Amino acid sequence: MRIGSPSTMAKNSPRTPTAKRKTGRRHPLAAVALIAIGLVSTGGAYALFTSSATADTTASQEQLIDEGGKLFAANCATCHGMSLQGTSEGPTLIGVGEAAVHFQVSTGRMPLAASGPQAEEKPVQFTDEQIQALYTYVGSKSPGPGLPSEETLAGDGDAALGAELFRINCAMCHNVAGAGGALTQGKFAPALTGVESIHVYEAMVTGPQNMPVFNNQNLTVEDKANIITYLQFLDDNPSVGGFDLGNLGPVSEGLFIWIFGLGSIVAITVWLTAKSN
């Protein structure tokens, strides 16, 4: 048997694979380093943005307070005192909160035009920006009721429950239909038709004039939202039973019967008597 030559054996034998050169590999900690760099960059940018926004907010708040202080000194301090302590001409404003100031000023009740049984609504004397500055200034002096959230004023509560709460807590002065009514000593409960919802809420939490204060122990925020929903329902749904006679109940209805009912009977009696003669 012939043994192949070395050259033949070398040609037929399988060729051993050549080892590839290793290229540059990433370090095992490279991914961790990239994540750390990303977190630091993101955190730094967020901190810078937040601090800038906070600084802008603080500066804006301080500017409002400063402007409000000037407006207060020029228009309110004569009666309420430079330190909000009150005088013989006006009550203290310490603790009344932003809601009370916004209600009184944005309805024109303040500044008071003249002394009387109660402050009446009149044209507003300040712009929205000035009103914001005033209530921000007073609110910065001591805590008190703040402005309501938009959800409370949205009018999407329970109108039926709001009507029940209104009848129990408000109707004895404002009438069940919100038409208002007379009180003692020349005072009155104003009509609530067409009144802005924010003013209704602010009146409930601050108790202006002769109105009692309804805090969250008396009426929760949800209860107040339901009452506001009921009043919005009254605004959107006029009387479907004919003439409402001012929604004053037996007062206007009795007057109508006396004048037109009995008047008609007297007129018919006179006519019949004259005809028989």
Automatic annotation (TrEMBL):
One Gene Ontology MF term: heme binding
Main location: membrane
Oligomeric form and interacting partners: The cytochrome bc1 complex is composed of a cytochrome b (QcrB), the Rieske iron-sulfur protein (QcrA) and a diheme cytochrome c (QcrC) subunit.
Name of the protein described by the UniProt record: Cytochrome bc1 complex cytochrome c subunit
Cell compartment(s), UniProt: Cell membrane
EC number: 7.1.1.8
Residue span of region Disordered: 1-25
Keywords: Cell membrane, Electron transport, Heme, Iron, Membrane, Metal-binding, Repeat, Respiratory chain, Translocase, Transmembrane, Transmembrane helix, Transport
Residues that bind heme c 2: C170, C173, H174
Organism: Conyzicola lurida
Compositional bias ranges of the Polar residues kind: 1-16
TM helices/strands, residue ranges: 255-274
Entry annotated with the keyword Translocase: yes
The reaction(s) this protein catalyses: a quinol + 2 Fe(III)-[cytochrome c](out) = a quinone + 2 Fe(II)-[cytochrome c](out) + 2 H(+)(out)
Membrane topology summary: Multi-pass membrane protein
Position of the signal peptide: none
Broad class of enzyme this protein falls into: translocase
A Pfam family it matches: Cytochrome_CBB3
Domain Cytochrome c as annotated: residue spans: 63-142, 157-235
